[in-house]
Amino acid sequence: MRRLDAELGSGGSGWTGDGGWQTTVGRGLEGARLGLLGLGNLGSRVARVGLAFGMDVIAWSQNLTDEHAAEVGVRRVGKDELFAEADILSIHLVLSKRTRGLVGAAELALMKPDALLVNTSRGPIVDEAALVEALEAGRIGGAALDVYDVEPLPADHPLRTAPRTFLTPHIGYVTREQYEVFYRDAVEDIEAWAAGSPVRVMELPPK
Q1: Dihedral angle at the C-alpha atoms of 66, 81, 147, 13, nearest 10 degrees?
Q2: Which of 10, 11, 78, 165 is most buried when burial is the number of CB atoms within 10 A of its CB?
Q3: Which residues lie across from 171 on neighbouring strands?
Q4: Is residue 199 over pLDDT 50?
Q5: Helix and strand counts by DSSP (H, E) for the chain
Q6: How far is 102 from 119, CA to CA, in rounded Å?
Q7: Rg for the chain (alpha carbons), in Å?
Q8: Of 136, 151, 180, 191, which is the active-site residue?
Q9: Catalytic annotation on 48?
């Protein structure tokens, strides 16, 4: 684990801009505890990465069972224990009424003062105002975010200046292979609809 926010800097700061060198001390992954909020397809893949680095991996979601957790090689814990025990907490849930705002002030208050929060899932799962407050107060070690409530992230958003943050502009899915799937499927959808045989039809939930 490295303080890339400090080492790389921005706007000409950091080692490439001002000639600095190794200004922070990192932490190793082996023996650290990775907490996964969600253990579906992506969460399970992240679990395997953590295990490969010798991490102790724990997980929670509302419907997670001991059996599924054991299949992935991780340990199911309660929600509060997940936040309290994780050195790195990574979010892997879909956004729904149930998960919107799931990570709020109460959950952030449970985290270790040096714990890191990682969100590459959906921005509104985390209460951004509560996260900014926790970062500015030094109650958590830092946050790495690729997703936000409003995208693009406004230029004056307080996350942009919050301490100990590493922000990326929702690029987790932006790959050549992913875009090939998007455009191919879009063309197939249009052709099928024009032919009177729509595919990949989604039903709207009842109001």
Answers
A1: -130
A2: 165
A3: none
A4: yes
A5: 8, 7
A6: 12
A7: 19
A8: 151
A9: no
Q: Which has more pLDDT, 3 or 19? A: 3
- 122 a catalytic residue: yes
Alpha-carbon gap, residue 198 to 114, rounded angstroms: 51
68 has catalytic annotation: no
Alpha-carbon separation of residue 156 from 121, 159, 204 (angstroms): 23, 9, 35
Q: First vs last Cα of the chain: how many Å apart?
A: 45
Tell me which of 68, 122, 157, 164 is the catalytic residue: 122
Task: Give φ, ψ of 42 to 5 degrees.
Answer: -70, -40
Judge whether residue 17 has pLDDT over 70.
no
DSSP β-bridge partners for residue 91: 37, 119
Q: How far apart are CA 96 and CA 12, in angstroms?
A: 39
Q: Would the pLDDT of 13 be above 60?
A: no
Cα separation, 130 vs 31, whole angstroms: 29
Whether the CB-CB separation of 127 and 135 falls below 8 Å is answered with: no
How confident is the model over 52-97, as pLDDT tens digits? 999 999 999 999 999 999 999 999 999 999 999 999 999 999 999 9
Q: Which amino acid is at 205?
A: P
Beta pairing, strands 88-91 & 116-119: parallel
Contact assessment for residue 46 and residue 73, using Cβ atoms and an 8 Å cutoff: no
